[in-house]
Design a protein that fits this description.
6 strands, alpha/beta, about 210 residues, 7 helices, single chain, about 40% helix
């Protein structure tokens, strides 16, 4: 009796390079991101038959989820707790811009992210609480089914850390590329990770 969670990230957006704190900003998928989403949809369709797809309410995730829905025939709906971290006053700024105004706070974010206090923003502990609610929703409504989650770099890292039983301090030890794929299985309350940050399905579109 196993529940399977296919955890994915949205496709490429222009604010990925140079790196900015994207957070809750509405940023559309780039042309590359649209192609990545289509490739991700085909990869999911080849490997799984999802019963449901849940996406962050931000359009970059909704568009990615729509591509998966077209490829698999599963219904996609939004789940607010999958939204990206709320970066408060840092949202939309580059790392250098934040460093110029909040050098100490930014250093804590990189050195001890579990202790970071982003001005006007969310703590990783708050993101974790949302991530656990996402998992509880899936396990309550989709026991022994396969579900696709389309989230963001931050929420995905936190969900994976929780599934591995690792502290938030290890936040930077997990990578999540655009339109990557992670696979988790849940038996009872035991999580097993089968894939992390898989992206070979993007080789052709990424060039």
């Amino acid at each position: 009796m196993t529940t399977t969670i296919v955890l994915t990230r949205h496709g490429h957006v222009d604010w990925i390079a140079p790196e900015r704190f994207r957070g809750r900003a509405e940023i559309p998928l780039s042309a590359l991101g649209e192609r990545q989403a289509e490739a991700l949809g085909q990869r999911v369709a080849q490997g799984w038959k999802p019963h449901a797809i849940y996406t962050s309410p931000l359009s970059r995730c909704v568009r990615t989820g729509d591509a998966i829905a077209r490829a698999t025939g599963a219904h996609a709906e939004q789940l607010s707790n999958l939204a990206d971290t709320h970066y408060g006053q840092w949202q939309g700024l580059t790392h250098d811009e934040v460093r110029a105004r909040w050098p100490e706070e930014l250093q804590v974010w990189f050195d001890s992210p579990d202790m970071a206090a982003i001005p006007g923003g969310e703590t990783l502990a708050a993101v974790l609480a949302r991530g656990v609610e996402v998992l509880q929703h899936v396990l309550h409504h989709h026991q022994n089914q396969t579900v696709v989650l389309v989230g963001h770099d931050s929420i995905n890292r936190v969900i994976l850390l929780h599934s591995l039983g690792l502290p938030l301090l290890r936040y930077w030890r997990i990578k999540q590329e655009p339109c990557c794929l992670n696979e988790l299985s849940v038996e009872g309350q035991t999580f097993t990770i089968h894939r992390i940050n898989e992206s070979h399905h993007l080789m052709m579109v990424n060039g």
